Request: fold
Amino acid sequence: MSGLPYIRWQSGKVLKLFYHKELTEAGCDEAGRGCLAGPVYAAAVILPKDLNKKLLTGLNDSKQMNEELRYELRPVIQEVALAWCVASASHQEIDEINILNASFLAMHRALDGLSLAPKHIIIDGNRFKKYRDIPHQCVIEGDGKYLSIAAASVLAKTYRDDHMKELHEKFPVYNWKRNKAYATPEHRKAIEDHGLCEFHRRSFRLVPDQLELEF
Reply:
């Protein structure tokens, strides 16, 4: 086991193992914030301070990883983590409280589900709603800088992708198994052709003539 605070991956990129050396630290990230339908997912991960660097070779910001590697690393992350949890906020909650607050809600739910209480939290991004009385640090592009945030990004992304693949079976016209409900030209064209379904976020501007759609 290595006690070093940095791990160098095959790509040559250095990710930090922790922000606070002495504290039990959870990394948090979300997935699906910019999508047009479905829930926003979030994950919280606590990694051991003496993590063996070889176990998570290739871990990075999930957006910089291919799908195969994300799914390959998911069970490894879950195995080596001291604690982890994935949670979500529904499309209805997104419409009720807005996507930013829904993202915070999903992250708080993920932190609630940890079997080990963190003493410090690091979050990808520049904003966060304080969780209980636990100190936190926002890190811009943190999923490409800290291992626990990168691990959280992989869990949030893969579990949300799985959920969207399940919803695809109910509404195949939107091809969510491929676009995961992101605002791709394909998805927007499907909305124009077929209208909205029950899982679309009404608070988002989905197409230019959205006001003419029948809900």
Strands lie at 6-8, 14-16, 25-31, 40-46, 83-89, 120-124, 136-139. The mean pLDDT is 90. The chain is about 35% helix and 15% strand.
